[in-house]
Amino acid sequence: xxxxxHLAGVVIAxxxxxxxxxxxxxxxxxxxxxxxxxESRILNQIISDFNTSQSDWTVTIESFPxxxxxxxxxxxxxxxxxxxxxxxxxxxxxxWAWAGYLQPLPIDESEFADFLPGxxxxxxxxxxxxxxxxxxxALFARQSTLDELGLRTPTLDKPWSREEFMAAxxxxxxxxxxxxxxxxxxxxxxxxxxxxxxxxxxxxxxDIVDRSTYKTAEGAxxxxxxxxxxxxxxxxxxxxxAPGTSEDPADQQTGFIGGKFAFQWNxxxxxxxTMEAVDDVxxxxxxxxxxxxxIGAGSxxxxxxxxxxxxxxxxxxxxxxxxxxxxxxxxxxxxxxPPTPSAAQMTKNYKDGGPLAVFFDLSKAQALVxxxxxxxxxxxxxxxxxxxxxxxxxxxADTLDAxxxxxxxxxxxxxxxxxx
Length: 420
What we know:
By secondary structure, the chain is an alpha/beta fold. It is 45% helix and 15% strand.
């Protein structure tokens, strides 16, 4: 009898000890980074820290390959099987919000007041997503190349003008030292074209779509400024300044390092590897083609699915993950920009005086998010095809007019995508 009572007491005690874990409500999360060991390790550590930091929620993660991720989300949305927390590419977020995949974050936007603009996903005046890192593009060069060619080193306060930029390419081409003056990474015909090249168009004064209404691309993508951009863009290839769409993909990884190119338009995710191989590499701001110097903004972010039964728990996780120590960990791990100044100071590369601190400044001063519209997912594909066709010799005016017609037809067929 005493033994029975003792065993019963042990069972009761064990049940009590387990109660907090059993009380935790499960939150599901989907992530696009399957196969990326560094990202996954850091994110899994954040999840583990969150799960043990409180007794209300426990997050479980399922990772997908990036190439199939968006399709998986769309299929799950149709089936009503979305998780609580979604990973979403910044420029795609408005489409998912409009389509009913996401709900506004139940978090006061003031909590992210220090975040770089590109790390915050805003649609229709509401905050839907927040990123744990940001990315930026710069013109890679060697200081020795600038010196040998007698070129002024551009700064954020005084970037190269269009004329200076072309003079730099002419000087590099005339030197005979390089296979091409400039590498643009033309082989990558995915999101790279709209992210990396639409800022050139915007610096000319054009855009992918008219942002004043988001109801047409007329005038923005085929107006006078866009025509000037298109002619300049085509001349980069017909003039032999840059390799075209048949460029070897390996060149974006090693071409500049190996001395094949004098200049390279590339992202900060390639900066660490380049610094390790090129001791005098410098990262220069985008040229100003007349309407200001601009680069792209907006990277992967976290949001709460519209079907989540526990949006408050999902929001608690997102706030937890957005702590400076985790922003700094991602930056040190994958080389991207921490989205807050305080997190930047905790990193080896982006703190004041750090070798990549310039990218934080570039992002803060030059960055422009891609068109904030559900129609962007179509517009980006149309823009990419138009730029590839122009690079391959297509008539500039006809190609841009055709792109406008395709974009406008899509906007009309989708009822204006909710733009009023």
